[in-house]
Structure formats: C-alpha cells, structure tokens
Amino acid sequence: MIITVFILFFSIFLIVNLGINNLFKKNRKDFFYALPIKNYIEIKKIKTETFSKHLLTVNWGTYCSEIILFEDSIFILLKISYLGGLINLYRPIIQISINEN
55 with 77: CB under 8 angstroms? Predict the structure, then answer.
C-alpha cells in the first residue's frame, strides 16, 4: 500500500514537472519565432547565477543561459543542463528593459 502511494505521488510529480518544462520550452520557441527583424546580438552558453527573495524563501540558482541584446532591452533565456547536456530543463525568460520616458 505504501509503495503504491509512493509510486503514484512520484508519477504525478514527474508528469507535472515535464508539463511545466514543456511549457517553458514552447515559450522559448515562440520567443525566437516572434523576434522582430532588427539587429540583435545573441550570446550563447553563458554561466548565469540568479538570486530571488520572497517573503519566506530565498532561491539561488546557477544556469547555462543565452543572452539576447537589443538596443533598449536584454533577454536572458535560462536552462539547466544535466548529464552533459543530454537533459535540458528550461526556465522562464527574464527581460530587462530601458524606458527613457
């Protein structure tokens, strides 16, 4: 009985994580599809560290990312690679913009 419950929870956990990963992967593909035809610089395979602080938690992560530079904004596309790049887990896209109004 306990083993069955464990297998059930592990399966649900795995399916939810794969679903979230596929959502971020689709967002990344849509981002590159929607890039406007203007000059930008793409820098690949940059080691990036992120820090976020919430009310009860503090998160610090190290990622291999791609950075896309426009004239007025920067996009950071995060991903975590396991097993030498065999498994890639994608994370949300971070945008930093400059507004001179």
Answer: no
**Which residue is listed with tokens 């790049």?**
85
Residue that the structure tokens 């419950």 belong to: 5
**Helix (H), strand (E), coil (C) string for the chain:** CHHHHHHHHHHHHHHHHHHHHHHHHHHHHHHHHCCCCCCCEEEEEEEEEEEEECCCCEEEEEEEEEEEECCCEEEEEEEEEECCCCEEEEEEEEEEECCCC
Is-contact 65 95, C-beta < 8 A?
no
Tokens of 51: 């820090």
How far apart, in whole angstroms, are the C-alpha atoms of residue 1 and residue 7? 10
> Is residue 41 classed as helix, strand or coil in its secondary structure?
strand
Model-level pTM greater than 0.90? no
Write the pLDDT tens digit of every residue in 2-58. 889 899 998 998 888 888 878 888 887 887 787 776 778 888 888 888 787 888 888
